[in-house]
Amino acid sequence: MQTNQTVPHAPDRNTGNGPYERLIIRGVTMIDGTGAPPDGPVDIIVEKNRIKDINQGGLPESALENAHVIEAEGMYIMPGFVDTHAHIGGVNQGVPAEYVHKLWLAHGVTTIRDPGSFNGADWTIYEKERSAKNEIVAPRIYAYTCPRNWDKGFSALTVDSAPEFVNWALEKGFDGFKFINRWDPNVAKAVIAEANNQNLGTMAHLSQTTVARLDALEAARAGLGSIEHWYGLPEALFATKTVQHYPEHYNYSNEYHRFSQSGRIWKQAAAPYSDKWNKVMDELIELDFTMNPTFAIYEATRDAARAQTADYHEEYTMPSLWEYFQPNLNNHGSFFGDWTTKDEIEWKENYRLWMMFVNEFKNRGGRICTGSDSGFIYKTYGFDYIREFELLQEAGFHPLEVIRAATMKGAESLSKENGKPLEFGVIQQDMLADLVLVEENPLKNFKSLYGTGTLKFNPETGQAEKTGGVSYTIKDGIVYDAKELLNDVREMVKEAKITNY
Ligand SMILES: [Zn+2]
User: What is the distance between the alpha carbons of residues 82 and 154, in angstroms, rounded to a whole number?
Assistant: First the structure.
């Protein structure tokens, strides 16, 4: 561990064009983020950082004068993606912010929420403000803090001092709070109540050390905004027990214990469509609760080899990040030293039950967002955000429902928690110009969104060729060439390999 170091901030913006007085994206097929089907061709008119108009039926040539025009015939456009569970690297991973930001933008991510702001309060707020002014190449940042960042420290946080802590965060420029590790439920509830008073958001990873006293339903009743993964949910669904069936040798601090046993928890919860299962789900929806399943981050548990050998690692995974992923008793999520066939089989079943809940939650009107939590467990920024789309589709989502989760639902969750109107996440007049332009129909194949593209037969040669990848990501009216961003990342990785070895 290199804890005396800090994560390098992103340098001054070194790529991207615009915003333009007038930008016209011409002849494009639009997927607007609401669940509406593709529609086109349309011309999207952007003025500076806002969508001004969406024109159907073709603009006259005169309208194109003095405008920057992107000829987008045959292309698809979506709202910029929102990653609701996105850590901006970390010292232990040895990745600079520029690497992380560019991988996100290269995969269409124009907004992220950093749960916990683990790089420190000042560090994260500096990055957030610089991104808001577009002084760096980065998605817009919603920064959720943890009490560790408070200058008084976690131990000073009590029911009585909760308002002081919340005020500190508000003044600092944070957008909300992240709960993780061991919490006194009364203190957590006091922070949640005060956060809601001040229009700050709340999200939780209800750890095994907290969940015996505070499960997802109780936290939702106290006003919690969302959970990540599922933590606290199977516990709220226990019908024949009150604690998880921990083997007697279990120790939460042992990552292998933690992950092998969490793969066995969903089958301990109430059966799908049982009374208990239905009741808990319906009440969560009634409370307008949000879930960020973040399926992709745990995928290595059901198929370690797949995650370890992903085709992007070679060129896009920083050597220090790769090292962090390797089996190690001290690194979070590096538990593969003892991983077994049985563990993977248990996890496959775990996913099946978890996905069933998430899909039905969506069907009954619940809000599901897309998060990635990359930087752990063989998951690399950007790439494994797209993997989340594939896993939501596997859970039963129509591809349009997936895109809506990634765009409108993510934006809705953030705006709701911050008491603000919706400003992005939907392609519509007056929204911020956060957009993703792609050459292939994403509904047909989400694999086409990976920076490494997907293999496709070329009818002329009969050979399979790599196609796809995002073409342009537009944030705040600034047009980023996604291939150029990927090129920058490959250079950074190459450089790091030369200097590190
Ligand atoms: Zn996380």
Answer: 29
Contact criterion met (CB below 8 Å) for 471 and 463 = no
Segment 88-120, tens digit of pLDDT: 998 889 999 999 999 999 999 999 999 999 999
Q: What's the one-letter identity of residue 116?
A: G
How many Å lie between the centroid of ligand 1 and the Cα of residue 86? 7
Dist. CA 138 → ligand 1 center (Å): 19
Do residues 67 and 23 touch, judged by C-beta distance below 8 A?
yes
Look at residue 464 and tell me whether its pLDDT is greater than 70.
yes
How remote is the CA of residue 99 from the centroid of ligand 1, in Å? Answer: 18
Element counts in the chain: helices (H) and strands (E) = 17, 18
Residues with CB under 5 A from ligand 1 (ion): 373
Render pLDDT for 138-180 as a digit per residue (tens, 0 to 9): 999 999 999 999 999 899 999 999 999 999 999 999 999 999 9
113, 409 in Cβ contact below 8 A?
no
Question: What's this model's pTM, rounded to 2 decimal places?
Answer: 0.97
Sorted by where each starts, the structural domains of the chain and their CATH numbers stand as 23-79+427-500 (2.30.40.10)
Ligand 1 centroid distance, CA of 87 (Å): 6
Taking the C-alpha atoms of residue 107 and residue 85, their distance in angstroms, rounded to an integer, is 15
